[in-house]
Amino acid sequence: MRPQTPHPRALFRTAACAAALLIPLGATLVPAAAAAPASAASTTFKAGDPATTVHGLKGEYFSMSAPGARDFDKLGGVALEPNINFPGLAGTFESTTGQSENTTARWSGFITAPEDGDYTFAASGDNGFRLFIDGKAVIDHWEPDWDNEQTSAPISLKAGEPHEFKLEMFQDTGGANMFLRWSSPKLAKQFVPESAFTPPADFEVYPVGLSVADNGTELHAVFDDKVSDYADLKNHLTIEADTTPMPVKSVTRARGGKELVVKLDAAVLKDQRVKIAYDGKGGLKAGGETVPEINRTATNNSTHRLTTKWGDKVDRNHPLPEYPRPQQVRDKWKNLNGQWEFAGPRRARSPSSARSSVSASPCRTRSSRSSPAWSATKTTCSTASSSRSRRTGPSRPTSTARATG
Ligand SMILES: [Ca+2]
User: Fold this and answer.
1) Coil, helix or strand for 22?
2) Which segment of the chain is annotated as a signal peptide (predicted)?
3) Which of 166, 211, 201 is closest to 4 using CA atoms?
4) Measured in angstroms, how far is the CA atom of residue 61 from the centroid of ligand 1?
5) Which of 256, 263, 301, 344 has the fewest CB atoms within 10 Å around its CB?
6) Looking at the whole model, is its pTM more than 0.70?
7) Residues in the chain with pLDDT < 50?
């Protein structure tokens, strides 16, 4: 029941084997045989840099033995997941098991409450799910419905006391998602955070702390030891914010050599899920040891939001002032359509001819003298350089007006 903390470098070799089990971004599958957990005997943790303390859950993804079986037949892949907040699991199932339907998942580890209290869990999934705390089912909804939230009875948890955690779900067909929130008399309902989870002791992950800076354009990777040989790292990193690829601009070393600062071409937005994949082939070393393949989710501290260039000028206390609003201020107004002419109908003509005789440059109006006046006007659009409509038909404008904006 010990939370994972960084292990000494002497254990990196076993850690490297386990880290290689994590799911790569993309389609590479983790063979089920290789995904067997590392021996518990190899797990000797000791306190280290809190920046690299490992939080999250071991996620395992399976295919069913047959549609509707809802069993854990064939393990397709394993990953360290930060928490249970999966709006779209179909892609994860596809990349690990080779199929997005008739699949199952299990997330396991420990859950630790931040303070004493009675916690109520609320789970929602597509499709069925069941939650176990200390081996006891506190939510059991193994049903083929979806988005049908289920809550547990209040569970008494003590601050800092880890409890065994296991959540299982199945996905029959169509969409797939899974969410887990909690609440207590002192805590508003919210996603159970990554900081409350620790993976099982026999599931080792490479000790590196990954976080996105508040500006959104820098990713910080903090290692236990001095890093070296990072010149080619840029070409071996894949970073995604939600599902958007984030190209890497540069990689530099900082903080006494234990940290790598990865600059991105564009800013990560607040609350995006940032996935980092290092393929293990860039020659990167930490403490002289080769850094293995790493697939993780970074803590996203970005405060960046998508706004217009006028967004920063908005007064928070008076967000929608009367005119002129900043986005409506122009040095010059331009009529993007060119000049317009409006012509009224000649007396005693039908209303339809009045409608058809309204024309706008650059569309040219042409009428056929052999046709009835009320059905003869045709318009043909020409280039924007045409400044005034040319009138060849029998009707004459009784008034003209020029649009000014
Ligand atoms: Ca489904």
Assistant:
1) strand
2) 1-40
3) 201
4) 15
5) 256
6) no
7) 1-50, 353-405
Rounded (5°) CA angle 69-198-50: 155
CA 89–ligand 1 middle distance (angstroms): 10
A 10 A CB-CB count for 271 gives 10
Q: What is the total residue count of the chain?
A: 405
Alpha-carbon gap, residue 263 to 274, rounded angstroms = 14
Tell me, what's the pLDDT at 323?
A: 62
**Sequence ranges of the chain with CATH classification 3.90.182.10:** 9-198
Helix (H, G, I), strand (E, B) or coil at 213: coil
Q: Give the distance (Å) from ligand 1 centre to CA of residue 283.
A: 41
How remote is the CA of residue 68 from the centroid of ligand 1, in Å?
A: 12
Name, in order, each residue with C-beta under 8 angstroms of 339's C-beta and a sequence gap of 6 or more. Answer: 361, 387, 388, 402, 403
Residue 330's DSSP bridge partners are none
Q: Tell me what pLDDT residue 71 has.
A: 98
pLDDT at 297: 87
Please answer whether residues 171 and 127 qualify as being in contact, where contact means their C-beta atoms are separated by less than 8 angstroms: yes
Say how far residue 365 (Cα) sits from the centre of its chain: 52
Dist. CA 274–CA 309, nearest whole Å: 25
> What's the CA-to-centroid distance between 119 and ligand 1, angstroms?
28
CA distance 55 to 208: 11
Q: Which CATH architecture has domain 9-198?
A: Alpha-Beta Complex (3.90)
What is the CA(176)–ligand 1 centre distance, in A? 5
User: What is the CATH code for 208-300?
Assistant: 2.60.40.1220
pLDDT digits (tens, 9 = 90+) for 317-363: 877 666 666 666 677 776 667 666 667 766 655 555 444 444 444 44
In angstroms, the CA 76 to CA 275 distance is: 19
Q: Residue 108 Cα, ligand 1 centroid: separation in angstroms?
A: 21
Local structure of residue 146 (DSSP, 8 states)? B
Summarised one tens digit per residue, pLDDT across range 240-287 is: 898 788 999 999 999 999 999 999 999 999 989 898 889 899 999 999
CA distance 97 to 95: 6
CATH 2.60.40.1220 intervals, the chain: 208-300
CA of 298 to the centre of ligand 1 (A): 28
Buried/exposed 54-83: b ≥16 CB within 10 Å, e otherwise: bbbbbbbbbbbeeeeebebbebbbbbbbbb
pLDDT of res. 327: 65
Calculate how far, in angstroms, residue 173's C-alpha sits from the geometric centre of ligand 1.
Answer: 4
